[in-house]
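User: Just a sanity check before I run the rest of the batch. Below are the structure tokens for the first item. I only need the designed sequence back.
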């Protein structure tokens, strides 16, 4: 079991001595940051604010060592084979765009995605469709939002790349990654998993899954903003062309020629966010103290309570699977004819409850179903049952006003 009191003590914003404490139910957008992460970043800025890899002095050596430590932590965290398979990015979006623009896609190549993809895993492919003529096919989900393996199997023939979300930020449903990858590989297709929403909440083993590429962000897993990771099997990364080039990607150059550094350096153009990378390493250290099963059970307890209470209100419609256990730590709901932005604003102003309203960067889903927008609660290891009860009490107050 999680000791939420002990966990909350690590987060400055949750310290009641610092001022009013928010009920923070927006971790699917951005997780809170433990003090250890902020302190690690400040340590860099205060004590060794130099370049990694470029400068031959003590400060530079320390940055280089710290960046390497983070890369090694990520290898262990996702069970990659070695640190050359880990590329630092700004976020999941950059990782997906890196692959889209480096895979060497040609006119007629088929990309297969689900009907619940974040814009970051939809628009890059549509843009390439418009630019070079690739084909983008959509896998229809089941009515409850769960992944339809039968539909997937019907569409997989001739596909170059399957690019799907692991856990949906829309409704919290987790796709059967192992089965998807097995079927894709049987049909000679590569697979990219968008793990932005899954990696903060569940253990991911890239070798067990046999996934070809994986992208995730630091800011959803207790880490700094502007940090992310793109993983790829080394033999596949070697075949990719760089997405961006410049400093730190080049071994040598003349006025007429150049030679790239090996993977992963050839994909990490320019000076990196060293403080962010160091902070990401600290976030991984922090998360690694917990059993992900305990995190899942904690989130399920809160999700089950909130779901049961919402189901008592006839006008509320929950997006995704009915059972809380099938929605990770997310409860996304709407009321027909109601602008859920107003709902979120009122909760914030009345009770300091922070939730997300809108279309959650999955505009395609809302447009196809003619839903205006929704209100999303997303839970994490620092949330409590008291907060869940506070939310329900104030939700009912808002409903009376609306």
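Assistant: Here's the designed sequence for the first item:
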């Amino acid at each position: 079991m999680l000791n939420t009191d002990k966990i909350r003590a690590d987060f400055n914003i949750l310290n009641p001595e610092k001022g009013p404490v928010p009920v923070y139910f927006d971790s699917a957008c951005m997780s809170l940051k433990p003090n250890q992460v902020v302190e690690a970043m400040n340590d860099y800025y205060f004590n060794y604010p130099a370049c990694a890899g470029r400068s031959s002095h003590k400060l530079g050596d320390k940055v280089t060592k710290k960046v390497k430590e983070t890369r090694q932590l990520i290898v262990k965290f996702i069970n990659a084979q070695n640190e050359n398979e880990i590329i630092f990015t700004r976020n999941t979006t950059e990782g997906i765009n890196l692959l889209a623009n480096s895979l060497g896609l040609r006119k007629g190549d088929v990309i297969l995605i689900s009907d619940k993809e974040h814009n970051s895993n939809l628009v890059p492919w549509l843009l390439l469709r418009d630019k070079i003529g690739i084909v983008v096919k959509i896998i229809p989900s089941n009515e409850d939002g769960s992944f339809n393996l039968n539909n997937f199997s019907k569409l997989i023939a001739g596909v170059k790349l399957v690019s799907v979300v692991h856990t949906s930020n829309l409704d919290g449903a987790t796709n059967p990654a192992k089965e998807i990858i097995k079927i894709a590989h049987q049909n000679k297709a590569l697979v990219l998993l968008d793990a932005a929403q899954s990696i903060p909440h569940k253990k991911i083993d890239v070798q067990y899954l046999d996934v070809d590429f994986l992208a995730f962000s630091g800011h959803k897993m207790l880490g700094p903003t502007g940090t992310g990771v793109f993983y790829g099997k080394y033999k596949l990364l070697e075949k990719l062309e760089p997405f961006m080039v410049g400093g730190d990607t080049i071994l040598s150059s003349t006025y007429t020629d150049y030679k790239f550094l090996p993977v992963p350096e050839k994909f990490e153009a320019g000076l990196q966010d060293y403080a962010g990378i160091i902070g990401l390493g600290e976030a991984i250290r922090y998360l690694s103290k917990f059993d992900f099963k305990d995190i899942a059970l904690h989130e399920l307890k809160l999700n089950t309570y909130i779901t049961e209470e919402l189901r008592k209100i006839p006008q509320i419609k929950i997006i995704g699977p009915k059972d809380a256990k099938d929605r990770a730590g997310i409860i996304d709901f709407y009321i027909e004819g109601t602008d859920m932005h107003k709902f979120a604003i009122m909760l914030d102003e009345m009770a300091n409850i922070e939730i997300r309203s809108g279309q959650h960067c999955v505009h395609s889903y809302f447009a196809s179903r003619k839903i205006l927008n929704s209100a999303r609660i997303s839970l994490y290891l620092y949330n409590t049952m008291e907060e869940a009860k506070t939310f329900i009490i104030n939700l009912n107050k808002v409903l009376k006003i609306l």
